[in-house]
Amino acid sequence: MPVATEKQLIELEETAYNVWHNYYKDIFSPEQIDYMLKKYQSKSAMKEQMSEGYIYYMLLSDGKLAGYMCVLTQSNHVFLSRLYIKAEYRRQGLAKRALSHLENVFTNPELGFTHIKKIILRVERKNSFAINVYEHLGFKKVRAEDRNIGSGFVCCEYVMERNIQKK
Predict the structure, then answer these.
(1) Which letter, b or e, does each residue of 74-104 get, where b requires 16 or more Cβ atoms within 10 Å of its Cβ?
(2) CB proximity list for 34: less than 8 A, separation 6 or greater
(3) Could you give the CA distance from residue 54 to residue 3 in angstroms, rounded to a whole number?
(4) 135: phi then psi, degrees, rounded to nearest 5
(5) pLDDT tens across 51-87, in order?
(6) C-alpha angle 7-9-12 in degrees, rounded to nearest 5
(7) Whole-prediction pTM value?
(8) Which CATH class is domain 6-163?
(9) What are the residue ranges spanned by the domains of the chain?
(10) Angle at 8 between CA 54 and CA 39, to 5 degrees
């Protein structure tokens, strides 16, 4: 479900805080997690991203918020900026269903996205769980990049991609 209301943004901000502190505790320092949350996943940051064309989706399971994703269409691909699932909903096929939804959108000629050929994402190189999930879903590592995200923090990432599965 696309995020459209202030209430939904507040729910995503709270979800991001909980998921990130739980998930990244063995990858980043608490200070880096807090910095990244404020910079990328605060309500104001998400509103700004949405004004730039990013689309946030709430991922629901039995009507409950189970996670979220964020995408941005670019020249010939869609950038999967975020895909986070709460711990209690992992390993239930939500990531696969979220990507299937993306592919349905980007293979629908009525929506005008025929130029979109692939999905691209970034994943922290120490995030072996997510890397394994993405590889299982057909993504391939294409390069490693180190990004300075400010305040002395660096993200060491793989850029991964997969072709859109045309129906």
Answers:
(1) eeebbbbbbbbbbeebbeeebbeebbeebbe
(2) none
(3) 11
(4) -65, -40
(5) 999 999 999 999 999 999 999 998 889 999 999 999 9
(6) 115
(7) 0.92
(8) alpha beta
(9) 6-163
(10) 50
